[in-house]
């Protein structure tokens, strides 16, 4: 655990560089805005989130998990189970929790105000996986903190989960298209690019589907899975109709203040997916 940050940074940079190279060689869709604008904004948002976390996060999730472990505190400790099972269950449970958290961010108007910064991106590529309002990052951290504390999630599970979540967010936002022969079986297990792009569709019923970030099973189990959008993956309209002008989706200052603006919103109702 002493090298926690090196593992995170290594996997993060490795994944980002790999997907950026893949996107450059074989992009799935054309970027309508221009890379330099979008990349700058998305990366600056990530930096702002990291800064806010430095200022306001009292303890790292791994450090809290270690304290729990020393005290044998948390729900898992009420059951006699092997360590490996505790790690596995924790990673699965956290993934399901992130699914529900994402769904709530769409459902609750105040939370949607924050999350729409992610959806206002008019194109998606690997940098979109880093594009979240700093307050959403902070809120998400406190939710995870509570879960780690109450469940007694082992430190190894926290580290694994954070690394996997980070890598899969970069992977499933990347602007690539896997061949159908690979993509179809793969999406039985994990969220693929085609699956997550439907979640970024401008059509409300499609936005309110495919909430998973890592495992695709939660959308199938909880009835929010959408296999195909009305338009094909290549034709799909990405973004939010209320923020289609470039100055509304690429300026850092605009995006930081976006949750506090009054704009007529058409996207947040959580209707069931039409199949
Ligand atoms: Zn979303
Ligand atoms: Zn997304």
From TrEMBL:
The keyword Lipoprotein does not apply. Keywords: Membrane, Transmembrane, Transmembrane helix. Residues 88-224 form the Fatty acid hydroxylase domain. It is found in: Membrane. It comes from the Bacteria. Its main location: membrane. InterPro entries: Fatty_acid_hydroxylase, Sterol_Desaturase_Related. The keyword Oxidoreductase does not apply. The chain crosses the membrane at residues 6-22, 43-64, 76-100, 141-165. This is Sterol desaturase family protein.
């Amino acid at each position: 655990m002493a090298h926690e940050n090196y593992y995170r940074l290594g996997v993060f940079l490795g994944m980002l560089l790999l997907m950026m190279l893949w996107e450059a060689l074989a992009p799935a869709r054309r970027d309508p805005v221009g890379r330099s604008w979008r990349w700058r904004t998305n990366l600056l948002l990530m930096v702002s989130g990291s800064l806010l976390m430095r200022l306001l996060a009292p303890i790292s999730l791994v450090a809290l998990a270690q304290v729990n472990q020393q005290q044998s505190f948390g729900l898992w400790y009420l059951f006699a189970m092997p360590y490996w099972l505790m790690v596995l269950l924790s990673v699965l449970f956290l993934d399901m929790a992130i699914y529900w958290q994402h769904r709530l961010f769409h459902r609750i108007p105040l939370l949607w105000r924050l999350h729409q910064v992610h959806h206002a991106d008019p194109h998606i590529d690997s940098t979109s996986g880093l594009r979240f309002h700093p307050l959403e990052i902070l809120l998400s951290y406190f939710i995870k903190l509570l879960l780690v504390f109450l469940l007694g999630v082992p430190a190894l599970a926290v580290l694994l989960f954070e690394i996997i979540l980070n890598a899969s967010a970069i992977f499933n936002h990347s602007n690539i298209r896997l061949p159908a022969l690979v993509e179809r079986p793969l999406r039985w297990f994990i969220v693929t690019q085609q699956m997550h792009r439907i979640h970024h569709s401008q059509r409300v019923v499609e936005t309110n589907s495919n909430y998973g970030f890592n495992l695709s099973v939660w959308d199938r189990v909880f009835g929010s899975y959408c296999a195909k959008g009305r338009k094909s993956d290549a034709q799909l309209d990405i973004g939010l109709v209320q923020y289609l002008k470039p100055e509304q989706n690429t300026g850092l200052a605009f995006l930081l203040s976006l949750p506090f603006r009054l704009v007529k919103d058409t996207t947040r109702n959580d209707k069931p997916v039409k199949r």
